[in-house]
Amino acid sequence: MLRGINLGPTRRVPMADLRALFGEAGYEDVRTYVQSGNVILQSAAKPATLEREAAKLISERFGFEVPVVVRTARELAAVVKLNPLGDVASEPKRYQVSFLSGKPSAEVVKTLKAAAVEPERVAFHGREIYAWHPDGVARSKLWNSLAGKGLGVTATARNWTTVTTLLEMAGG
User: Fold this and answer.
1) What are phi and psi of 125, to 5 degrees?
2) Model pTM greater than 0.85?
3) What CATH number was assigned to the domain covering residues 1-70?
4) Which of 9, 67, 69, 153 has the fewest CB within 10 Å, making it most exposed?
């Protein structure tokens, strides 16, 4: 999952070019989902290695740095199975999972819990943060904290529809 591409007129990465880039680099069964930088592929590389390789390929081809967060199909299946806010998150487009490169610190967890104003909810599990934004993200302090750089780790968020679609595409 790529962070921060195709959000405006800069940092544009056509998905066809992204698929071609990974295919040329030797990755197999390369597919993308929507324009926000979701890539599904087959690789024997460890996730951390794949993150570095993908970031380097993108930087060399497109000329800018893109943070990359990798999850295996098994890890993604565990994220979906856990679904800690499934009992309240009734609208998949307003239910977000932030995928982090590392576990958030206790201080970050405390800050995010404080930013979640009812009826919002937030749950933490390992390298994922689940957030329910029933009133949307436009004025959400929680979303602003999740989307910012104050997490101390690389992070990128996907809504529940995207998360479950990625799992389906990955064969889970």
Assistant:
1) -150, 110
2) yes
3) 3.30.70.1280
4) 9
